[in-house]
Amino acid sequence: MIPAPAAATELKLHKPGRILPGFGLTLGYTMVYLSLLVLIPLSAVIIRSLGLGWSHFWETVTAPRVIASLRLSFGASLIAALLNAVFGLMVAWVLTRYTFPFRRFIDAIVDLPFALPTAVAGIALTALYAPNGWLGIWLKPLGINVAFTPLGVVVALTFIGLPFVVRTLQPVLEDLDQEVEQAAATLGASAVQVFLRVALPALWPAILTGFALAFARALGEYGSVIFIAGNMPMKSEIAPLLIVSKLEQYDYAGATAIAVVMLVLSFALMFGINALQNWAASRHQGR
Amino acid sequence: MLRPFLASAVLMLGLGGATSLPAATVKLLNVSYDPTRELYEDYNSAFAAYWKAKTGDTVIVNQSHGGSGKQARSVLEGLEADVVTLALAYDIDALAAHGGLIPANWQERLPNHSAPYTSTIVFLVRKGNPKNIQDWNDLVRPGVSVITPSPKTSGGARWNYLAAWAWALRQPGGNDAAAEAFVKKLYHHVPVLDSGARGSTVTFVERGIGDVLLAWENEALLAQKELGPDKVDIVAPSLSIVAEPPVSVVDQYVDHHGTRKVAEAYLNYLYSTEGQEIAAKHFYRPQDPQIAARYAKQFPSIPRLVTIDAVFGGWSKAQAAHFADHGTFDRIYGQ
Fold first, then answer.
1. Nearest chain B residue to A134, by CA
2. Is the pTM higher than 0.90?
3. Angle at which helices A200-220 and A150-175 pack, to 10 degrees?
């Protein structure tokens, strides 16, 4: 009679929720698929960087120019993702909450940074923000240089990251029950209180997902940035460009060393964001 | 199940063996760098006509273009090029050093260090030369801004860098320290480092950035021809470097494809009168003195032209001293 409770819990764990069979099969496919697409290529990167030896690896990734480029890549990507989190929320809010002329058209425009080849985006942004461009010509007298500075990198990364926040938030906003907001208002909450205490908590997990996606996309971006960055060593050189530079010298190990550092740092950041998101989700559900 | 497969295999073998019969079709892949696109389009049809007249075979030459270093890497990683025609010997050296695809002495197999045509580095300035730029020392005057790509990622930029270094070295009292100081000063006048030569041309011409573009002579002449002479002027410095874009057969792949004979003929024909003439028409300096004389007028006259072998002791030494990690270029930006 003693094993009975264990069997009961096991039943409880596995039986419900399995309306469709095939756990083993789908898990198998998932592992094969992830291995082929993600794990094997990434382990190849790590294995190749091992050819360097630890001291050489450390020397490569702590060179001032590499540090400067990593700082720019992560810093600019963070700023761009933050900007997108704020303004993407606004765009998504406007597109789901209000009806106005050309709403569908504007909705479609949001996807353009997805669809555009990134080099096209880079060329267009550079032409716009160069000192002789449509916008650059007005910004220059104000002492603002966008193209060929770190600011230009932020602009490009913000551009390519926008759809990620908007498209993650839109379905959540559409599902959000507006009656809850109305109830809060009838109970005497001000508009700001309704937004901050009622709407925002429900949106946090989606905002964090959108932020994480935009950030990850920005970190890996190469095509559009090299056009607008100016690529000055120590100033406006992104880490992916240094990887390409190393490859130009047939320094495969050095290139993969920088790649491994980016990989580890991004994984740590993504892991942190995921944890934060789980915490936000459970907190919201717990209320 | 097996029979159709065998049949098609036999059929394919039959077709493969047919290359020696009359009126066969041979395919070659020429992996080249960016600015040679138009040159090789012309040259391929000329060579196809020549080869057809000589052997009766049809040659189809496929072209691949891109940054010189990237192209060499593609070949190393398995792009089965029959011939490579790249921007600098260092990139073809890599095929010998890293992949053993060609013998180390590849550069001795064809005349003139395997460079059928040469180019050099000149200055492209705004129309009328408003900053009055005449020579290398004018580039480091206050208020002059210089456009050149990053020598870390661009083959053309390495020629620019070495030309500047050679000029400073050959000034009265010049030595390596003075040359390094000059080049360092020069790069502090560079506001944008594009990753490739074409990117720099766009920055200078389309974005209107910079007073002077350091460019391949053939690119400068092409830009002038396409933009019209009312936009830019070409300035010839007192000294420049002979840029030798070399060519080679990729031994491992031609032997595998059975295309060695035609691939070698393809490269040899570059040295023929017709090949030299096509190169000259595309603003490359021909090696043949007669044709060079005939086209002399189109090239700016540069009083002193030095070679990389004479000044730097060849590509591998230049690469190690200047462009490798901790080389002189890294020192410019404080690394």
1. B207
2. no
3. 140
